[in-house]
Amino acid sequence: QVQVAESGGGLVQPGGSLRLSCAASGSISRSTSMGWYRQAPGKQRELVAMTSVGSTTYADSVTGRFTISSDNAKNTVDLQMNSLKPEDTAVYYCNVNVYPRSYWGQGTQVTVSS
């Protein structure tokens, strides 16, 4: 059984920063890719950032503000979020891929508001 646990969400003012962390544990081998998605109320889940060996992808809306970092051997992935905007408000989900399976966390709420 595999568990994916996120932490670090919360309430922050516009322009502030948050760091999300994620760790996958259990019967899981080295991941092939890891990343973060988010889902705002009434909207579809969207990719925020994804990293694999030699490749990193960011959504256009977060490029230059968010930074993803990972340790594939330990199956951990962090998301540093700077210059946060109200439109970044969403539930953020960690995604860990170990071919051919994909694992998801329960999500952590990020609210950007004054």
Structure summary:
The chain has 114 residues and is mainly beta.
Describe this structure as you would to a colleague.
There is one protein chain. The protein is 0% helix and 58% strand. It has 114 residues and is mainly beta. Strands 2, 4, 5, 6, 9, 10 and 11 form a seven-stranded mixed β-sheet that branches. A hairpin with a 6-residue loop joins β4 (33-39) and β5 (46-52). The model has no long low-confidence stretch (mean pLDDT 94).
Number of helices: 0
Low-confidence blocks of residues: none
Mean pLDDT: 94
Give the termini separation.
Answer: 40 Å
Report the sheet-strand fraction: over 45%
Order of helices and strands: EEEEEEEEEEE
Oligomer: single chain
Radius of gyration: 13 Å
Topology (elements, then pairings):
Layout: E1 2-7, E2 10-12, E3 18-26, E4 33-39, E5 46-52, E6 55-58, E7 66-71, E8 76-81, E9 90-98, E10 101-104, E11 108-112
Parallel strand pairs: 2-11
Antiparallel strand pairs: 1-3, 3-8, 4-5, 4-9, 5-6, 7-8, 9-10, 9-11
Jot down its keywords.
about 110 residues; about 0% helix; about 60% strand; single chain; 7-stranded mixed beta sheet; 4-stranded antiparallel beta sheet; mainly beta
